[in-house]
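Retro notes (design track)

What went well: tokenization of the new backbones is finally stable.
What didn't: we kept losing track of which sequence belonged to which structure.
Fix going forward: every design gets posted as structure first, then sequence, in one message. First example under the new rule, 64 residues:
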């Protein structure tokens, strides 16, 4: 099986999902302008509280 990056995977499935969350220590790729509202980031080191806050925010947005 070929390996692909998380960004490549996100670009391929981005049209079919509401949000994509990257947990990363760095980000070297430009966002695709038409997907920037779907892509979210937690930068390492992160905390459980940051994780909860982001997912609560995404859940609240999906209920609107």
């Amino acid at each position: 099986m070929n390996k692909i990056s998380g960004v490549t995977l996100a670009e391929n499935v981005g049209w079919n999902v509401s949000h994509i969350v990257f947990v990363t220590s760095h980000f070297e790729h430009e966002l695709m302008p038409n997907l920037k509202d779907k892509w979210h980031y937690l930068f390492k080191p992160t905390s459980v509280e940051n994780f909860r806050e982001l997912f609560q925010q995404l859940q609240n947005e999906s209920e609107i």
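Added context from the reviewer: The longest helix spans residues 48-63.
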